[in-house]
Write a structure and sequence with these properties.
CATH architecture of the largest domain: 3-Layer(aba) Sandwich
Number of domains: 2
Shape: globular
Helix content: 25-40%
Distance between the termini: 6 Å
Order of helices and strands: HHHHEHE
Number of strands: 2
Strand order of the largest sheet: 1-2
Structural class: mainly alpha
Radius of gyration: 17 Å
Number of helices: 5
Length: 121
Amino acid sequence: LHTRLAQLNVHVDVVSKPARGGGFQQARSERLNRYLREIPGSYWPAPHSNPDNPLAYAKLAELLIDRVGKIDCLVGPVGSGGSMCGTSRYLRVPFPGLHTIGIDSPKSVLFGQLSGKRQLS
């Protein structure tokens, strides 16, 4: 992922140390808020609280139906919840028996694991 972002000329700022008493999620949030304060015109789409996040996945659901046809099970990431919630919401209209499986990385606090450094490749 880092290589793909670099090819797009994206600056990747890796948070390598947890915040005191708050773990890596808090450290990332603090870094994000610092950038928002310091960089004029900066924008953050706030995926965890933005109602448009899941709505944006209606088109993906349409494409999946068009290309795949009947879908029995959807497996996907659950970071902000937008992609899985949005895609499955639209897929459940034509496929009410759709099963969903959410995937997250180790040491993610989303499912009650202890916070820690995550190695993503």
